[in-house]
Amino acid sequence: MSANGTKIIRVIKGRRPKVVVIGGGTGLPVIVKALHEQDADVTAVVTVADDGGSSGVIRNYINVVPPGDIRNVLVALADMPGVERDVFQYRFNSNDSFFSGHAIGNLIIAALSEMKGGIFPAIQVLSKMLNVDGHVYPASNTPLTLHAEFTDGTTQAGEAEISAAGKTIKRIHVEETDPDDHFEPRAEPEVIDAIMAADVVVLGPGSLFTSILPNLMIKNLGDAVKKTQAEVIYITNIMTQKGETENFTDAQHVQVLHDHLGEPFVDTVLVNISPVPADYLDRQRYNEISSPVKSDYPALRKMGCRVISADFLKLRDRGVFHDGDKVAAEILNLAFQVGTMKKR
């Protein structure tokens, strides 16, 4: 947006910049919404390995892909009146043993998944119903379970259980949740096509091991991210996360990504340089937060990454977040630099 609030329309060779954002959690819809408002052609690829909260309960009842992250991204890209948006996002607070804590949108997604034979076709139908500008793709059409191996040699299954284990994660992988499915997890062709056609592919922000990597561990999806000619951007988290990345530098985050995919593939890293004020964070409410991520520019450059440092910090509600507008502007600047030319 310009200073007077007028939308700035920017194009690459007669079209809107194509941005694919891969991840999950609360940070994903913030970035997706800001990119949409700055007129990018956005495709969101959302993790399906979440097993907590309302999504987890619904998944346990009817064995569908957890809908919570997908619901929030749909709303970020939807063009619908405020009252409809509020109803879709409404979370029951009754004492009913089933409905308590469930978001209406999660129930709608679960119902459509049964009607259409999977989460992927269900979300495409719902995208039309909600007037979504862009694309929302589940990383897989079937529920996946996250598995972790820790540095002490033990293993654990389940996103919430892995985070709660309090151990250092060595490696993660995903498997089909349904024990009767014996095939390798796969992303749908539309996901792969979007990644290959993108100007930029964005990873994060979000939990490294439980929001970003589960997507990349789907083999054909990870292979596409390595092969695409798009600029691959990693948004470094502002804070480290207990049970996942305590004491990690930004370079260590990237190294984990490279190690899991077997080769360097991240081109650009966005790093926040604005300090987090002491005693601002409500650590009871945001109890998964540990400490600010430290920067290791020499290590990032040694890995061949371009580093963009700026004030990406937004403080609100006694929490620490990325400023979606600033991050989106930087992503689009990179998209226009890269255009449709091949990287490297």
Automatic annotation (TrEMBL):
A Gene Ontology term for the protein's cellular component: cytoplasm
A Pfam family that the UniProt record links to this protein: CofD
GO MF term (any one): LPPG:FO 2-phospho-L-lactate transferase activity
One Gene Ontology term from the biological process aspect of the record: regulation of cell shape
Locations listed in the record: Cytoplasm
Coiled coil: none
Record's keyword terms, sorted: Cytoplasm
Predominant place of localization: cytoplasm
PANTHER family: GLUCONEOGENESIS FACTOR-RELATED, UNCHARACTERIZED PROTEIN YVCK-RELATED
Role noted for this protein: Required for morphogenesis under gluconeogenic growth conditions.
HAMAP family in the cross-refs: Gluconeogen_factor (MF_00973)
Entry's family note: Belongs to the gluconeogenesis factor family.
Designated name of the protein: Putative gluconeogenesis factor
